[in-house]
UniProtKB/TrEMBL annotation, chains A, B:
Residues 13-317 form the Enoyl reductase (ER) domain. The keyword Metal-binding applies. Belongs to the zinc-containing alcohol dehydrogenase family. One of its GO terms (molecular function) is oxidoreductase activity, acting on the CH-OH group of donors, NAD or NADP as acceptor. This is Enoyl reductase (ER) domain-containing protein. Signal peptide: none annotated. It comes from the Eukaryota. InterPro entries: ADH-like_C, ADH-like_N, ADH_Zn_CS, CAD-like, ER, GroES-like_sf, NAD(P)-bd_dom_sf. Its cofactor is Zn(2+). Keywords: Metal-binding, Oxidoreductase, Zinc.
Amino acid sequence: MSDLKFRGYAVKDTNKWTEFDVVDFEPMGVRDDTVDIEVEFCGICGSDVHTLTGGWGAPHLPLVSGHEIAGTVRSVGAGVKEFKQGDRVIVGAQIDACGKCRQCQDDNENYCPKQVDTYNAEAWDGKITQGGYSTAVRAPQKFVFKVPDNVDLADAAPMACAGLTVYGPMHRFGVKKGTKMGVAGLGGLGHFAVLFGAALGAEVVVYTHQEDKVADAYKMGAADVVLTSEKDWDKKHSMSLNFLISTIDVSKAIPIPELASQLYVNGVLHLCAMPDDPIPPFQTQQLAANGCSISVNHVGSKVEAEAMLKLASEKNVKTWKEVIPMKDVGKGVQGVKNNEVRYRYVLKQDLA
Amino acid sequence: MSDLKFRGYAVKDTNKWTEFDVVDFEPMGVRDDTVDIEVEFCGICGSDVHTLTGGWGAPHLPLVSGHEIAGTVRSVGAGVKEFKQGDRVIVGAQIDACGKCRQCQDDNENYCPKQVDTYNAEAWDGKITQGGYSTAVRAPQKFVFKVPDNVDLADAAPMACAGLTVYGPMHRFGVKKGTKMGVAGLGGLGHFAVLFGAALGAEVVVYTHQEDKVADAYKMGAADVVLTSEKDWDKKHSMSLNFLISTIDVSKAIPIPELASQLYVNGVLHLCAMPDDPIPPFQTQQLAANGCSISVNHVGSKVEAEAMLKLASEKNVKTWKEVIPMKDVGKGVQGVKNNEVRYRYVLKQDLA
């Protein structure tokens, strides 16, 4: 046991979701497999905004959100072999699972029906989990990922959720050299999809409606950028992509038939984001020209997280981020909501 | 050139879609690669009803529909090596393609952008294609499939569309022994999915709301049948299927989230039918519990058609059908619309 204090920036009212107060909280109880981590950085995820505004339903209040957590291990449970004090680690959007079901046994723990979210969920002992806009988190070792020496903790923090959420499906689909991959929406998730896609050697085509992001997309490694505000934007790469990740987070802004039309036969349109509303209705006929699929995912598994961090280390992937003091979290969540961030806010510890 | 007459049962008004008159028609012009086929049987497909009623838009009238065609080759073009007079063959829903594009070159001719439907479409010479409720059809050899000796022509006819439409995706997904496969909706398509699934050695679970079909499903080879009219029908096989084919042809009757919930991690919900309306809107969150996909297809390729017919021959697959005289086609289409058919009407030639 360390002498870590658990304190964080909490929202107390979803109508005042940019107002944060510092509160003390009790983390999940210690187990043989838990790791206590001193938080150094925490990214701000779109999920935090969905949760704090009540878009995904009424949260437990007061709530400390944040699930792109990077820090240093301070103490470990009796059964922890994987980590030791001083290790540099990240924790993402999922913090626990049953460990026993078919999914947990075959490296699909991110689909365990008893999965526990990193904040706003009931932990194994009934406590409500609290996130990384805080001094410290306690996490079972299965959901803690070691950061390679040459990867900065501030870069690694947003990889824990935004990075893994796009890398997971890319890994399962088998993106590699020779894959023609699309990325629709160039925000926090989308920018990681471009970075990782390029790092894997794929030919990446970015779709954005924001002209001011075009130059950035090329710098991140895109082979081509399509401005969806232009007429006939869906013609140039029609029926040619193998895989297209949409990270567009507003339902009505997802042009399902047009995105699907970019895919070659049996290609996959993968929807990473989880908007507040249903996706626009479509007819099966509209997907029949190429027999494509629409797929979704829930973050990624530990196997995928470790593969992602290895790629980031080997290919020197750098997160495009703005580091701000943790006390400015209110401005940060507002900036995410307003789509002002380029491309991820990372909060730096100031409570310790 | 044979002395075949091209005459068929045609609808002249979508408001009178059960009234058929015998008309003469001109088929597509002869090419080096065309085959003239004397029609012996033609299945009635749900597509015929969608087209004749105007559900898929206003058709060219008068229209001879029918794209589950079985018959005997009477003559072949100068370049045809694959067929000779007297061969027993079938023709399905697609009758031509460009032969040159990437899709045509890699056995995805069913996704050629210049694909030509067997009826109600513009042929290479501008003629409107007419279907198999008729004495004869002319088809390029690429879209003619040879029927194995031990398969009856009346059984083979509905395989040309209903069979191939479900077998195609099963083939691409790799259904085999060890696959746990669902079939939702036990009509013409669904019954083939059960028959072929069982023939491939898969464990087939049928979902139907019709109690009077349960015994049939078991006889077709289902391992289990779930009555979707019962409470909590989606609990028993929750999160366990690898692949689920929905053949439900009415949009609002497709319970997307409940069907998706039957799938194990990364399973595929495949929508074979093409209802008149968009599928019910859903949230990506509703598919996130297992990270599944929703996919569609447009019939199947020749490679798949030949694999299907080989399977039918080797495993002695028998179509469940009601053979009726071709002149009763009006009662037939009404019976399909009313969901009275068990499980396919096959029209027997009476015009020749």
